[in-house]
Amino acid sequence: MSPKATAFLKPRIEVGNLVPDFTLKSSSGKDVTLSELEGQKVILYFYPKDDTPGCTLEGQEFNKHLKEFAAANTKVFGVSRDSVASHCKFIDKYGYQFELLSDSEEMLCQLFDVIKEKNMYGKTVMGLERSTFVINENGSLIGEFRKIKAEGHAEQMLQFVKSN
After folding, report:
1. How far is residue 5's CA from residue 2's CA, in Å, rounded to a whole number?
2. Where are the domains of the chain?
């Protein structure tokens, strides 16, 4: 491969590797920093857009299992490119009890390589691929789930964190 070609390859976090520290704005109005969550597991579920059918269903299912995630020492965060204001409206509308992170500059989206080519109404666009990543208590990536279906996903993640 030529040096020119390698310049376009994105580094991708592999399962087993430490996740670089990051800070994003949260729907709570505070910043969320990964290193401040040390000692607990973290679920980052990436979803395309606030208040759309699949994203709403996925959020409702994670919300339904929040106490069980807490009992498994796990914090849940939804991540999209929507603004904090949009996240707050989404939370208010559906009563979510967990935080949504705004990645409007796509920093975390790029880190986890979730921006993919999609076909929308016959046009090719770059969109967010529904994906979930699980980080352990020490900051290492222990689970990577891509192209997931919203329905039933939260239950799958609950079983995963309980067994890891």
Report:
1. 5
2. 40-163
Residue 109 annotated as catalytic: no
Catalytic residue among 55, 91, 100, 109: 55
Instruction: Give one DSSP letter per residue of 54-115, joined into a string.
Output: HHHHHHHHHHHTHHHHHHTTEEEEEEESS-HHHHHHHHHHHT--SEEEE-TT-HHHHHTT-E
User: H or E segment at 134?
Assistant: strand 131-135
Query: In this structure, are residues 25 and 86 in contact, taking their beta carbons and an 8 Å threshold?
Result: no
Q: What is the pLDDT of residues 46-75, one digit of tens each?
A: 999 999 999 999 999 999 999 999 999 999
pTM across the whole model: 0.89
Instruction: Classify domain 40-163 by CATH architecture.
Output: 3-Layer(aba) Sandwich (3.40)
Q: Using alpha carbons, select from 118, 119, 80 the residue that is nearest to residue 99.
A: 80
